[in-house]
Amino acid sequence: MLATVGLAFMFTRTSLDARHADAEGKASIERVLESERQKMSQEREGARQRVDELEKKNADLADQLKKLQSGKPVNYLELNPADRDQINHIKSDEEQLQSRLGKLEEALEVTPEKALSTVMVKQRLDTLQDRTRGDIDSIHGEIGRLFTLTQWFIGLIFTISLTVFGLALANLRKPKST
């Protein structure tokens, strides 16, 4: 009797485990299917947007073709305001550069020695900078040596003061001999 109850329990448990596994498998498959549906939906939206863009471009091209076929001249010289602003900015920059170049040429024509003097001044300035760097390096070296000398001097003073203090202490501890 006990064996029969045990067997019935095992079959019931196996049957419940199988049903539970089937339910989990179905839920897993449903989740995968739902994610695939979402991906397909997103791809469909992207494809619709691309088709809309292409239809718009196609309509624009058809309009341009109609204009060409109707005999009306297409005006390619029309610029939008942003392009006009950019062209005006470039023109003003060019005018500024032309004026600066003109001033330089005028200065060179009036006094050509100024052109040579600027080169000489630059050479002198470079030479002066090199000398200054050399002087600064030598000053750093001297400061390093002075620092080392100061350290030795402070050590010497400290040693002498300890010696004097030790002698004074030794003399104070000696019994007085009368």
> Distance between termini?
124 Å
> Overall pLDDT, averaged?
82
Which regions have little confidence, pLDDT < 50, spanning 5+ residues? none
Helix content: over 70%
Give the overall shape: flat
> Structural class of the secondary elements?
mainly alpha
Order of helices and strands: HHH
What Rg do the Cα atoms give? 49 Å
Q: What key phrases describe this protein's structure?
A:
0% strand; 178 residues; flat; mainly alpha; single chain; 3 helices
Provide a concise account of the structure shown.
The protein has 178 residues and is mainly α.
Helices and strands in order:
Elements: H1 2-70, H2 81-110, H3 112-173
Helix pairs in contact: 2-3
Describe the structure.
With 178 residues, the chain is mainly alpha-helical. The chain has helices spanning 2-70, 81-110, 112-173. The longest helix is centred in the first third of the chain and has 69 residues, at 2-70. It starts with a helix and ends in a 5-residue tail after the last helix. The model has no long low-confidence stretch (mean pLDDT 82).
